[in-house]
Please model this.
Amino acid sequence: MAPRACALCENAKAMLKRPKTGQQICRECFFYVFETEVHNTITQSKLFQPGDRVAIGASGGKDSTVLAHVMKTLNERYNYGLELFLLSIDEGITGYRDDSLETVKRNQQQYDMPLKILSYDELYGWTMDAIVSQVGRKNNCTFCGVFRRQALDRGAAMLNVDHIVTGHNADDIAETVLMNIMRGDIARLGRCTAICTQGEDTIKRSKPFKYAYEKEIVMYAYFKKLDYFSTECIYSPDAYRGHARAFLKDLEAARPSAIIDIIHSGEAFEVREEVKATQRVQQTCKRCGYISSNELCKACTLLEGLERGMANAGISDRGRKQLELQGPAPENLRTIPLFKLPSGNPTVAIETTP
Amino acid sequence: MSLDIKVEFSGGLELLFSNQRQHSVTIPSIDPTTSEPTRLQYLINYLRDNLLKERLELFVENDTVRPGILVLVNDTDWELEGEGDYVLKDGDEIVFISTLHGYAGSTIIPGRSIAQ
Model:
């Protein structure tokens, strides 16, 4: 095939076919349209206010590495006036997270952003390695997911930021829409396409890459030669998401717009009022103060199960009942420190650049 | 006549190829199965049959690379180069980047892997 000129500048050689539009464009135009689309997503959704302190949830993987790069670029180019931080959660997975955190530490220097690392060990007294040695490899992703969500909020509160941004991309969101449909999870289906979530008791959280295709994120990282870490978690048997992902990739191969189409379908779902009325109201956990749909939040339930040697307590209703039969939680039970929304000054020292 | 091709694997794919990112391969310039100039499809089959060490199904599916693996021909998206029909030239650089998760076990199909 003869080389084609870029559909945008009509000058340089086209190097990429955009999955969203089918346009064939050159490297420089690709950088420009990719960054501009993220900028448009940010401005149209009014994600930030000048002066906002924003934490980028950074895992060292491709999505969050590209997000950190693009947030820095756009903040400077369009004078958003944001103060940017990197926030990493150390789950305590030897051979995986310790390596990826090295990448985040390099990103800290490359992007000149302050970095805070918060570990499961510090917050919960358990590393994922220790959890897996107790619970095995069946429900370990439940622990990790619940613990990570809280840890990000708690890390953000320590940094005293107004906002957390995460690298979730269009493929991730389309996958989640499919999973929620297949599981019949109406509550999550109703909210999983929201670009920004904020409750009264949580820190604002948003996804600037909501409409960015994974293919373009990977190409951006490749062309820019960004430093990222691409080994999968050694404990990751999240088979359900794996199936949704493989299915979505097959759909994309047949029709690339499928990903954005599924997101639009997800956005168009309206949950009827009488269905909404049956959903549980949010409250705060009586033990740690974190937002919860039960008296005890999921993380406190999981932690109590671990501490009392009954790890299933937080996984199944049966496990919960068994735990209750053993009597109330002992006085000296290890608990998660009380959650407070940020107000005033940061309560922690951030990592210093070596 | 033969072609020297530089091959690079990243995004986790290197784990299937002896945990080595860069490889140099020498393949015939005329595809012995078709007697025509060698195309990228031949290289994919060659890599599958000669360099792939494990988990065949994570690299190929239905005789092409698995959906979710990006292929670059001299830094250009292979979708602009005719994909598997691209006719290889001596010195070409072919990059395979996985965008998929699940190397640790989510999509293993038992019985199809060629090594454990």
User: Anything to note?
Assistant: Chain A touches chain B at residues 1, 4, 13-17, 24, 62, 171, 214-215, 218-219, 222-223, 230-239, 241-243, 245-246, 249-250, 252-253 (CB under 8 Å). The CA atoms of residues 91 and 221 of chain A lie 25 Å apart. Residues 46-279 of chain A form a domain with the Rossmann fold fold (CATH 3.40.50.620). The mean pLDDT of chain A is 88.
